[in-house]
Design a protein that fits this description.
Blueprint lengths: L26 H5 L21 H16 L1 H9 L9 H23 L5
Length: 115
């Protein structure tokens, strides 16, 4: 729809170049909010608290295997998606960091409080 002119892209979340829209600026650059920094849309697989680590590890291993497939990587990258696989501990840290970052951006720029 963007390529056909039906929609106009204003910005992308990531600083990473998009193959289909190489000149599209990042959200932080387009909005003039450098404190946003690197931002991205992300999708994660989570399990209920208390799920046995063997099951979590098996799920993580399968997701990593799928993302390692070159055909899958190519397919996702054509859609502007860049698959990343991480350990459960790394993903937990990522989610915590995202919460801190976006809470600060919201508080500093919109006066909204997260509770």
């Amino acid at each position: 729809m963007i390529q056909s002119g039906q929609f106009r892209a204003l910005a992308k979340y990531s600083n990473r170049p998009l193959p289909l829209l190489p000149e599209l600026p990042s959200l932080s650059a387009a909005a003039g909010l450098p404190e946003i920094g690197e931002s991205a849309t992300w999708i994660g697989l989570l399990a209920p608290a208390g799920t046995p680590s063997a099951i979590v590890d098996k799920l993580q291993g399968e997701v990593a295997r799928i993302y390692a497939d070159p055909a899958m990587q190519e397919r996702l990258q054509k859609a502007g998606l860049f698959p990343v696989s991480s350990t459960p501990a790394e993903f937990d840290t990522f989610i915590r960091n995202e919460t801190v970052q976006w809470s600060k951006v919201i508080k500093d720029n919109a006066g909204i409080r997260l509770e």
